[in-house]
Each structure stands twice: as structure tokens, then as C-alpha cells.
Design goal:
membrane, mainly alpha, single chain, 1 helix
Amino acid sequence: MGLAHGFHLSNKATNTFYKLVFVAGVISLLVNVFGLYAHLGNLFHWGGPSSVEYIGNQ
């Protein structure tokens, strides 16, 4: 059986529809993972310049 078992239907239109739903789900998952990574990067200050300033000798 496995994950691809549902794709072996006799109706080609239904088969194509399920493939499109699967692809849309994968794309949505990837966008959400990227958004989570961006949010965590902003939270933990990953990448970008540091905010340390050099005052110098006075």
C-alpha cells in the first residue's frame, strides 16, 4: 500500500486532482517551515550584523 496507494485510481481526473492537492500541501508545508525559520532567526538574531558598537578612547 504505502502513501502512493491513493493515487492509483481509475479516474484520471480524480487522480490528477489528488496529485495537485498533494503538491499544494507540500508547497504549503515548505512555506510554513521557511516562515518558522525566519521567525526563529529574528527571535534569536541569526545572521545579520551584530548591534555591538565601539565607543573608542575618550
